[in-house]
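Lab meeting notes turned into a lecture example. A postdoc, R.K., suggested we walk through two folding results consecutively so the class can see how the record format repeats. The first protein's sequence and structure tokens come next.
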Amino acid sequence: MHISRPRSILLAGAVAVTLSATALPAAFAAPSSTAVISEVYGGGGNSGATLTRDFIELANAGSAAYDLSGFSVQYLPGTPSAGSLWQVSALTGSVAPGGRYLVAQAAGTGGTVALPTPDATGTVAMSATSGTVALVSGTTPLTCKTAADCAADTRIVDLVGYGSAVVREGSGPAAGASATASVARGTSLADTDNNAADLTAGAPTPVNAAGETSGGAGPGDPGNPTEPGTVRVHDIQGTTRVSPLNGQSVTGVPGVVTGVRTTGSRGFWIQDTTPDADARTSEGVFVFTGSTAPTVAVGDSVLVSGKVDEYYPSATTQSITEITAPRVTVLSSGNALPAPVVLDATSVPDAYVPSAGGGSVDKLTLDPATYALDLYESLEGTRVQVADTRVTGATTAYNEVWVTVKPNENPTGRGGTLYSSYTDQNTGRIKVMSLDTTRPFPVANVGDELSGTTTGVMDYASFGGYNLQATELGTLTDHHLRREVTRKQRDKELAVATYNVENLDALDEQAKFDTLAAGVAVNLSSPDIVSLEEIQDDNGAVNDGTVGSEATLKRFTDAIVAAGGPQYAWRYIAPVDGKDGGEPGGNIRNVFLYNPERVDFVDRAGGGATTAVTAVKTKKGVALSASPGRITPTNDAWVDSRKPLVGEFRFHGKTVFVIGNHFASKGGDQPLHGRYQEPKRSSETKRVKQAAEVNTFVKSLLAADKSAQVITLGDLNDFAFSPTMDALTDGKVLKPLITTLPTSEQYSYVYEGNSQTLDHILTSPGVIRFDYDVVHINAEFADQASDHDPQIVRVDVNAQH
């Protein structure tokens, strides 16, 4: 399978470089407006390469032929030694205006594809990753070995340093060259005498003076074609997720520009205005320009030449079909755009994606009438439109919002879309982004609406999968979603809450403390006990051995008092430095806050970061060997993960055991929208082990006292229908309270437009009478202090059977 270059490499040329006073960029006489080195590739014949030879490609950005008689291209190693010499390849002939000139260099033992017939041939074995190439007036070897000395040599017409080359133009060499990637100029052939900015990495695309390519394209002028080639966009897209022309060069692909992206992964989309009759073959495709901003405009009729490539944003995602290293001819401007495909409840199928038995769906023939993801793939790169869509995932910091085109698909009571099963995906979800960077993006909460029509191009990304890159956004209709406030507990009720406060540490801004504190004091109505997840050490991500959280907890509890809440006390066990996962240096842990005016904490010495708490049978029931304590902290289930915190509390004469949890994250799981179907949930194995450890501990408490009142709660990072929950509730020793709510209320977290439950409160059979609530204050809102909603249970500890 062809795996494309990392996008980070392609964008490396845009990274700013700080220069010392002694390493200023060399100032070459003047950028060339005629002959330039347009592409350099030193990986030919290397392991993993397709092409069998290295090459240097020249181009002419001028309006008249450029005579190369008596000229040469010369090569110097990237880090020249005292004995390094420039190696010379003589040139003859000329470069036509807008044309190319190909210089073949040494062949390797790898590769299977020959270069097109070269216009000149040398014998230089160029490095794939670092070197310097110069176009020189004359054939006498250069002698300069520094950028400054070469800048002073007037025989040099153009020079390209790549990789880590010492000799280069400007602030840095062109980045990203490898056995499978060349460095090349953009379609404008711009030369600013700054290699890092002028050239970007991509699949090699050699073209000779006759317009021939290594992919077999016939003669013509790929730099400025005026007639369409034989390949159309639907030929490139094909009937599967991977192009049948993947890795091949194409010439003169016609289309109208439908969208332009000038930030991030730069490029533009074209769409064929004469589609075929096959619903499986998309008529749109992305043209990737790398760090070079596109020079085309929406409505331009263009011919695009370049190389077809399948770009995988990550190892488990689907790919994006692209034309890379493009050469573009604009034929006309202001053309009408193809009518968009309307996505709505009738056009989007109810089935999500075909099964591949856990394997890749890349080569499965698309079935857009049956599967939603097949429909979206068949529209990749084409114009689509949605209308009056309800927001199911609030606006993010990256200016993206989730909407649904199926208003009746698993709705929640507050406007979201409920995720209720591994097998029942919500097919109407679409992420909306905007290509218009001049207008503010709408700030929407769940339940709001993008009214009217939103039109744009169907794209795919590693986060969220298929998305609509909007050229026209609907109008935001605010449905005024309000944050919930739960009722105050009665005197006889013990109120216990769980809240993930998202990596809180003493260095955070006061505004974060104040918002989280209001959530506890106001929205949760000051619970008696709050089990916190993601409390970091006092200097957060600073990795200096600090493990205490006293300053963090003092700021938080003081903020709660300021918000009208009680003066909470706290208990926790500091982890061994660097052993509990989370943000490096943060030493994340679980913490109990409790109101000493309402509840007593039973302090019992002996607990520690690596000491396991046990159940101790007494004449009065069961007690903890240590309080606070940790459940089996040295068991391999907890390696690089937060250990459960157990505390023994007394309320109205009754003992209550509280277990605060934060199970391993879902990091590493294959995405719902990815190419592997059904997706593997690799992180689940660890959570199941963790759940089993907690379950075993709860059973030990109940074995000593079957009426023991146990509340286990926290961010379990898994769903009520998951194997993790099965392991945690094994033997019916714990009851998940989320399942006691109406179905439309069973969520506390919103991810990729799905309302779902990762946080839980569970109770033992000894907890007879309770009132449970998920308090929605974060997950559905664009402005949020945490990405989790807190939960609370109010227990009548003296209730009798």
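The second example is placed directly after the first for contrast:
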Amino acid sequence: MTGGPTEQWAFAEGNATITQVAGDYVTYGVVAAPAPRALSGLPEAPAALVGRDGPVEELLGVLGPAGPAGPAGARVDAGPGGARVAVVAGLAGVGKSALAVATAHRAVELGWFGDRVFFLALRGYAPNGAVSGPQAVQEMLRHLGIRDTDMPASPEARLHLYRAELAARAQAGERVLIVADDAGSVAQVRDLVPAQDAHRLLVTSRHRLVAPGFSARIVALDELAADAAAELLAGALLRTWPEDPRPERDPGALAEIADHCGRLPLALTVAGALLAGDPGLPAGELARQLSGARTRLATLHIGEEGDGDVPVGVRAAFDLSYARLPADQARLLRLLTVVPGPDCATAYAHLLTRGSMPRPDGPPEELAAVRASLAALVRASMLIEQPVGSGRWRMHDLVRLYARERGEEQAGQDGREGVIDALLASLAFDAAVACHALGVDGRAASGPGLPSVAQALQWLDGERPMLVAAVGFAAAAGRPDITVELAGRLAPYLALYGHAPDAVVVAHHVLEVGRESGDRTDVGAALYNLGMAHLDAWQMAEASALLGEALVLFREVPEPLGEARSLNLLGSLYTRERRWEEAREAHEQALEIFRAQGIRHAEATALVNLAHVLKQSGRVDEAVEACEQAHRLLKETGDDHRAATAQGVLGDVLWEAGRREESLAVREEALAALRELGHRAAVAWLLNGIGASLTDGAAGPGDERLDAAQARYEEALALFVEVGNRHGEGAVLGNLGRLHRLAGRLEEALESQRQGCDLLAATGDRDNEAVAVQGMALTLLELNRPAEAAGAFERAAALHGAVGNAGHESAVRAVAAQLRAMPAAPAGPVAPAGPAAPAESEAPATPGAPPPRRWWDRFRD
């Protein structure tokens, strides 16, 4: 199959010839006269063409008549220098033929070609031979009514006659459309190109047909969007069984199947046929069968030799494309599958094929040759460059599975194991260089040839998906040493730059390696790192269990430094849970051990964490002293990242101490340092805190500090959106809502608060969610919507109770009860009598101040 109608085969005997009429092959003898004409000889249009509106419109724009817009509003880009040829190119099974045939039928409906539409099956990838260019011309002459007895003997003469026939039709005002399906090369279709502007040639091919002297509009077809893929799958099933309950009963399973199919129409069609062939098969069961990467291609197959059916499957379709690749391109395709992550940069493709990374001062031809090979795979629709010009190459998921199968079959010939070792070693080295240039290892960046901070951060951010996947790949490949090394290089960057989900994935792999080794110290370190990652991800229960296990293990070994680190991090967890006394004890114990060990850097981390607890206990002056001491220590040790963050914490504590101007100045200095280091998430949290301070100090509507605060919030929000930090988005939106309410913009306030509450709820931060919901309740009160306000207060009370804040829970619940008991509210704002709900600024860990995890929890050694 080619993504459209099933290929049909016929063989003639003796002097008989074969032509195709309406999708069926008809055999007739050479003496038959006149030869039949295949007018409107298109295969049947697909039952449904979903998710292809854009490509259809693009093709209609080429096929439509020149001049004014056609009946569908399409205008042709033809005429002198315009396109008379369109090539639909894409991966096997992506639906090229279906698109071309459906579009051709649409052109017929619009009356653009009358009955002068001809279909040629070129079989460009058929194993027993494709239709040649001269053969295609001869077949078209038969379609145009030329009898075999009148057929010129030489290919050149037949080509001249073909061109003359098209010219005559153009002169008579007739337009001709030729659909040439499944071309494997430009040579098959070059002679079919009409010379007249009136006629059109529509080609489908797995290759992007590009050659000198062959001008065509390339329409590159990709996999379907998620919704369209699910629609195609459900539609295929319902056309067989209109009453089938599975699409409506389990749409999630169908979406999962579509995802496993890579949203490739051929794979979706096969999956639909599997379901239709077994009406009792639950969609979830097929999804489970397809979830196994090793068996997915085997599952996406229908029919076996000898059972009377024509085998149809994704692997068979890919076999034809793979067989056409030159040896060097096939090897490159196979080796690209050792690259973990979603894509591969050109430089790493060079490493795979040449054995080393390209030298920065090397000849440009060195990398250009690799790019040429990658571009050839793109033209063969086995890769895509995404985005175009980026030098990043992506393989469809099913192509990756297929290419990996071929790669494992030829692992010895390709030197696959050596390539894997070289790639992982290169990634570890490059990560070490980048992290050292950033200074995230706690040491000042130094050494010749280091990239700049911006360059290092750009590389880490760009390659992060591959680097994270490489840790799991190394662990699965039985390479524990490089697993631990690569994870250790990445961990500080992931933690400091706010990539908690990735940090969790990496730490899980290291823990598995540690448990397999049996070394208790290694296991303790892995437990600690995984607990830290879970804490950053706001997964409190997991963090608590892991850190508790690490603490017990480190005490048993014994390992004092590990014990202190675990205590310090547990103190941050207790702070998050408002267990102030336990937090203080944990941080003080950690501080004592760090000082005894003489580790000043770790001492500073414990001091900053302790400062937060002291501030919450009202010991603000001690908190200021602790922050100042920590900042000095961190500057002395050359840890610019944590020093800048400690300075931000100092600014927060100074604000609580009433030293407002000094606080803002200190935070502005920290902000500048964090910007220079590229800490977008940390910059956003600090901007959020500054905005909250300015809001707290504002007198009301018209105060210029509200405008300044809003600018800070909006910048912070943009940064959080950019880095994908939904928790930060929620906190800022809650703060913006409060600002809008203070400025008298109540509707804007409510919308912002609702969005913020939803985001905070999704992250599991119930403490800050409680404050945000409470703020929304106050806005609802001012909007004179007491019933809704009461509901919001009740929700806030429940959240306060869930985090152990009994005092706030009681006060807020009392306000909700009063509102429920009030008679219908008069016009105007409602101001309930009796106990007042705690103001937002009084609530614990308000979104107005950076959540503890962003400032204090970062200080670990």
